[in-house]
Specification:
mainly alpha; 11 helices
């Protein structure tokens, strides 16, 4: 019996080449003094500062604070958004009440609410967590509502014909069918949560990546500023790659079944 040929994921050589090319241009431009070092320090200097910040624990501490705030807010916003979206899909009265609020809140600039959240909840973690939840709840509501409304009615009729009640139909048919699209919405909410967290920290302080970045900028510590920006970019890239892997391994059945 001939064993199937195993395929291994190919390295994204084009992406690697693009990033390396950008870093080389960055280093050459800075070393040639085409711009002042205050505005653009060499990448090698930024890398040294990045390593130093990791070694002394400051970057790890700041990153842990920001990620804790971001994911706590994401969890609150996602749970609340899923519940509201499902209720809107199953109840016309709740849809009638909630739809105008969602339509009003979804396109609004959430960053404009930072002063209000600081006034109500202070400058520490609580205001930032709740602001992240507020920013993320609306896309989750819309995604969950759309997913629940598009569940194949044949599935529901089949379950009801076998004696499933409302609660069983909701838990074992509607909600599992919504998982893939809810997760896709969550992938959209994650960068929103990170951006909201970093921005709130930049404005309100209270520790974290955003506050450390602004503090470094005020004292003209450009290598630290660029090092923190690189970490922010890397965190978004790593999280999105991890979620794509999770989706392909655990939710691949949805693509095959057309859910």
């Amino acid at each position: 019996m001939i064993s199937p040929v195993r395929t291994f994921p190919q390295l994204p050589w084009r992406s690697v080449a693009s990033v390396l090319g950008l870093l080389i241009v960055w280093e050459a431009t800075a070393r040639a003094h085409l711009t002042p070092a205050l505005f653009l320090p060499p990448f090698s200097v930024v890398a040294d500062q990045l390593w130093f910040s990791i070694a002394d624990g400051t970057l790890v501490s700041d990153l842990a604070i920001s990620l804790a705030r971001a994911f706590t807010g994401l969890l609150l916003g996602t749970v609340a958004g899923v519940v509201v979206g499902l209720l809107m899909a199953r109840s016309r009265a709740i849809e009638w009440l909630a739809d105008p609020l969602v339509g009003l809140g979804f396109p609004s600039p959430k960053i404009a609410f930072i002063p209000i959240f600081i006034l109500w909840f202070g400058i520490e973690s609580l205001s930032k967590i709740l602001l992240v939840a507020f920013a993320c709840i609306f896309p989750v509501i819309i995604g969950t509502y759309s997913a629940a409304r598009s569940v194949n009615r044949l599935f529901m009729w089949s379950a009801m014909s076998l004696g499933s009640g409302r609660a069983s139909l909701f838990l074992h048919v509607i909600l599992p069918a919504c998982y893939p699209r809810i997760f896709t919405t969550f992938r959209i909410a994650v960068p929103v949560g990170l951006i909201t967290t970093f921005t709130a920290e930049m404005v309100a302080g209270g520790g974290g990546m955003g506050a450390a970045l602004i503090y470094s900028q005020r004292f003209f510590e450009s290598p630290t500023v660029f090092a923190y920006i690189l970490v922010m970019l890397g965190i978004g890239l790593v999280l999105d790659a991890a979620m794509r892997k999770f989706q392909s391994y655990f939710l691949g059945w949805a693509e095959e079944s057309g859910v």
